[in-house]
Design goal:
Elements (H helix, E strand, L loop, with lengths): L1 H47 L4 E4 L6 E2 L6 E2 L2 E4 L5 E2 L4 H7 L8 H4 L7 E3 L6 E2 L6 E2 L7 E4 L5 E3 L23 H13 L15 H5 L10 E7 L1 H16 L8 E6 L5 H5 L12 H10 L1 E14 L8 E5 L2 E4 L1 H15 L7 H18 L9 E5 L2 E3 L6 E5 L3 E2 L3 E2 L19 E6 L2 H8 L6 E6 L2 E5 L4 E5 L2 E5 L2 E15 L10 H7 L14 E5 L1
Helix pairs in contact: 9-10
Organism: Sinocyclocheilus rhinocerous
Catalytic activity: a 1,2-diacyl-sn-glycerol + ATP = a 1,2-diacyl-sn-glycero-3-phosphate + ADP + H(+); 1,2-di-(9Z-octadecenoyl)-sn-glycerol + ATP = 1,2-di-(9Z-octadecenoyl)-sn-glycero-3-phosphate + ADP + H(+)
Keywords: ATP-binding, Kinase, Lipid metabolism, Membrane, Metal-binding, Nucleotide-binding, Repeat, Transferase, Transmembrane, Transmembrane helix, Zinc, Zinc-finger
Length: 528
């Protein structure tokens, strides 16, 4: 009898354990099947909406629905005016809550008024009327202006003395509503040219940059959120504007470093990477305070041997050109990223993969005896090469994800690198292990000289090459690097992310002679 009771209890325990495991799994599977359907339905709804809705599975802070005033964990938020709503209230929010208004300049009559949204006021904000703290109530009790971010208590709103909006601290980077009205008119007349949202995965940046022509000349700053390759893509689009005779509308370019190496960003004082550690408000303040410098851009022309009647390969260079082990690492990395792009979504993983290929090349030495296969000319004079595996031609101070290549270490003085001097710095490396030693300040590169024009002749075999992280395998050819143009960039001199090399920071900083009067800007356009 006792045995049967124990057996029954064991089976009961096993049953409940199975239920406890299976039920959450089944619910999760059901939700995962339902989620794509729900997202498709919401996507259709968002497309027709006047708000810029984005769906999230989990809000990162306590959030209340602006329609039903109930706390919500998941739902949608408008990236334009900031209202939040749960799934059931999205359609109603579209009907009763207006987004940022589009109006003509004549409609503003020289004055602009607050547009209030109720609820979800930031903590530690203060009422514009009574100067007491806002945002400390559990429900939708306070208001926020979608333009200037001014906050006010529910009870103080009716007694607010001045309802005029000055667009707040960042008025110089806020696109005014009458500009949006002009864009809206152009969108109706030219739907293919002027999109509601410029997605760079579908449209080239030149489409978005054409909007600069609708603003006063010299008034636009472009914040490029991405890696050095994205920056080069935008700068190529700006060169297209120059070909169209739109020089007066060319924007100033600044960087939010989201790539792997971010050497150009580091050279311009914007750091080696951004992971949200600096508030967006501070990023905007840094952009407004930045200085304007003219950065050299270079033309890299590759003429393959035996194909002199074929059009040569022409590339634009902002950072550096290289042939040898670092280009081989980039080529291997690029090949694997093309096969499985989802795997290479982390900066740490990307650097780990680079380390793996660098270690592999230390053993294989695929670029051995480069000095016997290549000739180097600097400003027309041939350079005698020592026993090398790689040559790097630099325009900026940083290389290889944060290494100052030209200054290096030691007491021997070298002219500091600049981004605006029309000179290229040329160095050599003995191999992958030497590259690793340079990056941890255990060795210096072989300094080959500075020049206005660089010419390399690959006499035999195929070698890996790269320009600004874009690699390829190249057979016998002649490479000529000449000055192309200059780009207006923003330089952040307040702080530098280099280790504690203050002298190197000063070396990279441009002089006042190169500061452009166009730094007095009006609006910022963000290209992401």
């Amino acid at each position: 009898m006792e045995e049967s009771t124990e057996l029954r209890e064991e089976w009961t325990l096993l049953l409940w354990t199975t239920v406890a495991v299976l039920v959450p799994v089944l619910i999760t599977l059901w939700c995962s099947f339902q989620r794509p359907k729900r997202k498709v339905q919401l996507k259709d709804l968002f497309r027709k909406s006047k708000h810029g809705w984005h769906y999230t599975d989990l809000f990162n802070k306590p959030t209340y629905c602006c329609v039903c005033s109930q706390p919500i964990l998941q739902g949608a938020f408008c990236d334009c005016c900031g209202i939040c709503a749960d799934e059931e209230c999205i359609q109603r929010a579209d009907r009763i809550l207006s987004c940022k208004e589009i109006m003509t300049q004549s409609q503003t009559d020289g004055r602009f008024y607050h547009q209030w949204v109720r609820g979800n006021v930031p903590l530690a904000s203060y009422c514009a009327e009574c100067k007491q703290q806002c945002g400390n109530q559990p429900k939708l009790c306070d208001y926020r202006c979608v333009w200037c971010q001014t906050t006010v208590h529910d009870d103080c709103l009716s007694s607010l003395n001045d309802d005029l909006c000055d667009l707040g601290e960042f008025r110089s980077v806020i696109i005014p509503p009458y500009y949006l009205y002009q864009v809206n008119k152009l969108r109706r007349r030219h739907p293919d040219e002027y999109s509601k949202v410029f997605d760079l995965s579908e449209l080239p940046p030149s489409k978005a940059l054409q909007l600069c022509t609708l603003l006063p000349p010299g008034s636009v700053r472009v914040l490029v959120c991405g890696g050095d390759g994205t920056v080069g893509w935008v700068l190529d689009a700006i060169d297209t504007m120059k070909l169209k005779g739109q020089d007066q509308f060319i924007p100033l370019v600044t960087i939010l470093p989201l790539g792997t190496g971010n050497d150009l960003s580091n050279s311009l004082g914007w750091g080696a990477g951004y992971a949200g550690e600096i508030p967006v408000e501070q990023v905007l303040r840094n952009v407004l305070e930045a200085e304007v410098v003219q950065m050299d851009r270079w033309k890299v022309q590759v003429v393959s041997k035996g194909n002199y009647f074929r059009k040569p390969k022409v590339l634009s260079m902002n950072n550096y050109f290289s042939v040898g082990p670092d280009a081989l690492m980039a080529l291997n990395f690029h090949a694997h990223r093309e096969k499985t792009p989802s795997f290479f979504s982390s900066r740490i993983i990307n650097k780990a993969v680079y380390f793996f290929y660098g270690t592999k090349d230390c053993l294989v030495q695929e670029c051995k005896d480069l000095d016997k296969r290549i000739e180097l000319e600097l400003d027309g004079e041939q350079v005698t090469l020592p026993s090398l595996e790689g040559i790097i031609v630099c325009n900026i101070g940083y290389w290889g994800g944060g290494c100052r290549l030209w200054e290096g270490m030691g007491d021997e003085p070298y002219p500091p690198t600049r981004v605006d001097d029309g000179l290229l710095e040329v160095v050599g490396v003995y191999g992958s292990f030497h590259c690793a030693q340079i990056q941890v300040n255990l060795a210096n590169p072989v300094r080959l000289g500075q020049a206005h024009t660089v010419r390399l002749v690959l006499k035999s075999s195929r070698m890996p090459m790269q320009v600004d992280g874009e690699p390829w395998a190249q057979g016998p050819c002649t490479i000529t690097i000449t000055h192309k143009t200059q780009a207006l960039m923003l330089y952040h001199s307040a702080e530098h992310t280099d280790d504690d090399d203050s002298s190197a920071s000063e070396a990279e900083e441009p002089s006042a002679d190169h500061i452009d009067t166009a730094s007095n800007t009006q609006e910022t356009v963000t290209v992401s």
